[in-house]
Amino acid sequence: METAMPFERKAWESVGFYRGGRPTWPCPNCRAETMRIVDESFVVDETNESRDANLAWEPVDGPQEEVYRGRFSCMLRCQTEACKEPRAVVGTVSYAPAGEDEDGAPNWEQYFLPLYVCPSPAIFQIPAGTPEGVIRELRRAFRLFWCDPGAAVNGDGSVRS
Ligand SMILES: [Zn+2]
Fold first, then answer.
1. pLDDT in tens, 149-161
2. How far is the CA of 75 from the centre of ligand 1 (A)?
3. 127 C-alpha vs ligand 1 centroid, how far in Å?
4. Which of 26, 53, 54, 110 places its Cα 20 to 30 Å from the Cα of 45?
5. CA distances (Å), 62 to each of 58, 105, 121, in order?
6. How do residues 104-144 score in pLDDT, each as one tens digit?
7. Contact (CB, 8 A) for 90 and 114
8. Helix and strand counts by DSSP (H, E) for the chain
9. Separation of 40 CA from ligand 1 center, angstroms?
10. pTM as predicted
């Protein structure tokens, strides 16, 4: 009997990263944890609300980083030579304290939190020999689960509120 793989989703759930962190993620094709960000694909932009808040910012109000909100997108690529599978990621950007300087003041750095991944992380490994139609439906369920864990458990496709 085949043992269940750890949920690939765990590698993504509420796991953010700093730009210099160079994280790796599992590959949906070869399953190795060898997916890295393609540097030239990394794009960050600030939201209008954040831009307005920063324009109105006064030094007495505290650190400017606390009002910054942005969005990012990037491509990942599997580093395994024989695979090179691509994956796309989008998410939010904020600033978070990443350690302290010598005076004990926090070092604020941009913090990236993935919200959507294509293809969506598998909730479990699909066993070899699974019919193509079932694989399609499972992948669809993985996508739904990623966006809304409640929606994927309703067999009739309805979405609970
Ligand atoms: Zn791979």
1. 565 555 444 444 4
2. 14
3. 18
4. 26
5. 8, 13, 38
6. 888 888 999 888 889 888 877 788 899 999 989 988 888 87
7. yes
8. 3, 6
9. 20
10. 0.74
